[in-house]
Amino acid sequence: MNSVGEACTELKREYDQCFNSWFSEKFLKGDRSGDPCTETFKKYQRCVQKAIKEKDIPIDGVEFMGPIKDKPES
Amino acid sequence: MKIWTSEHIFNHPWETVIKAAMQKYPNPMSPSVIGVDVLDRDVDQQGRLHSKRLLTTEWGLPSIVKAIIGSSRTRTYIKEHSVVDTTEKTFELQSTNVTSTNMVSVDERLTYKPHPEDPEKTVLTQEAIISVKGISLSSYLEGIMASTISTNAGKMLYSCKLYCCNSELC
């Protein structure tokens, strides 16, 4: 799968690999010990945000059907 | 305005289905999705994972049409917000198109939960609200779009099932 910015596809793949591994092996098993993908994500994001600006994609201020409900405070 | 809802059952437990759903693209049953990017991701104070993604989709027009009108007018971008709650065992996604909004608005909501009677199964509930703007045939076109979304949902389910069964996640 490609990124919106052609130059970002490799950075995206690196981040996706890191995230999918963390998601399956840690997050879904209840391990919240930290995110090993932070640095990879930052590099990927810098590239994606630049591509979004260049393509003039209006991603800000979009309203969805309604808020995904907040968990009530227990 | 057209509202379309459906419910489907996967014969796999919730964790397996959401691992597959997170990696749903690319898949041969959804060729119109040509790009997926994560814009933001974090875990909130209740331990829920929030993701904001941008999907790039390409209309299935013949190449000659795309060459004439230009690819910038055949692409639609969709913004998606999802939340994974491992305590409640829910995976909720909401998406809406952020371009082509002068022509059409498609808001979708999907929810994955364990089947209430069988923890080895997962229930997917889908809802879409479609509005085609500014033309007198809008109700007719909304009906066609709802039917397309329904067909695509069926394909998506097939592709999820395919993914689940062909990957080590099964």
UniProtKB/TrEMBL annotation, chain A:
Single Gene Ontology MF annotation: phosphatidic acid transfer activity
Record key words, sorted: Disulfide bond
Superkingdom of source: Eukaryota
Family: Belongs to the TRIAP1/MDM35 family.
Pfam families (alphabetical): UPF0203 (PF05254)
InterPro entries: MDM35_apoptosis
UniProt source species: Monopterus albus (Swamp eel)
GO biological process: phospholipid translocation
Catalytic activity: a 1,2-diacyl-sn-glycero-3-phosphate(in) = a 1,2-diacyl-sn-glycero-3-phosphate(out)
GO CC annotations, alphabetized: cytosol; mitochondrial intermembrane space; nucleus
Record protein name field: TP53 regulated inhibitor of apoptosis 1
From TrEMBL, chain B:
Protein name: PRELI/MSF1 domain-containing protein
Pfam families: PRELI (PF04707)
Domain PRELI/MSF1: 1-170
GO cellular component: mitochondrial intermembrane space
Chain segments annotated as transmembrane: none
InterPro entries reported in the protein's UniProt record: PRELI/MSF1_dom, Slowmo/Ups
